[in-house]
Amino acid sequence: MLFKEDLLAMLEAVLFVSHEPLSFEKLLEVLSIEKEELEDIINDYQEMLNVPGRGITLANVAGGYKLMTKGAYHEIIEKVIKPQGGQLTRAALETLAIIAYKQPVTRSEIELIRGVSIDSMIYKLLDKELIMEVGRKDVPGHPNLYGTTDRFLIQLGLNSIDELPELIQNSENELSQDELDYNNEGLVVDIVNSNENG
Predict the structure, then answer these.
(1) Domain extents for the chain?
(2) Which one of 2, 75, 127, 169 has the minimum C-beta count within 10 Å?
(3) What is the reported pLDDT for 188?
(4) What whole-number distance in Å separates Cα of residue 120 and Cα of residue 124?
């Protein structure tokens, strides 16, 4: 029989080597323990990390558990690891926000909302693996439908797309309501991520 400290060490080791979030079921399989026991060690490990003086946290993102750096340390981390391909432009962020909230959505539907061509934005978001093709729309021409990826959820520290903040109308936005409206729903231009994970 393993002691709790051994189980915590095993949990930490498998989370450390995994690049992708590990589901609860995968952790059960790997650690060969009971459900209640895994719940306890996950809670204990999260508490161990959620104290001052620790630079990482155990996040429940994209349907699994992943060790992530705390958001407070992102500037120092960028001195060691530069974000791949740099940061997204405002136009790319707007396109990503539309896809996140309207998915599955076609390129022409996104362009109707933004009012400009988004070809380069789609390629950039696909290249960064933040979006993917999720099918084809059943209309003439069968255009591609786009949706967000697990990498998108991980980057925002979300477990599912349902955890996105509610859409709000930005009162300082200079665009008219007609330009923002799409199927009678407002488009938010800025997404604020309140999650501390980075």
Answers:
(1) 4-78, 90-180
(2) 75
(3) 35
(4) 6
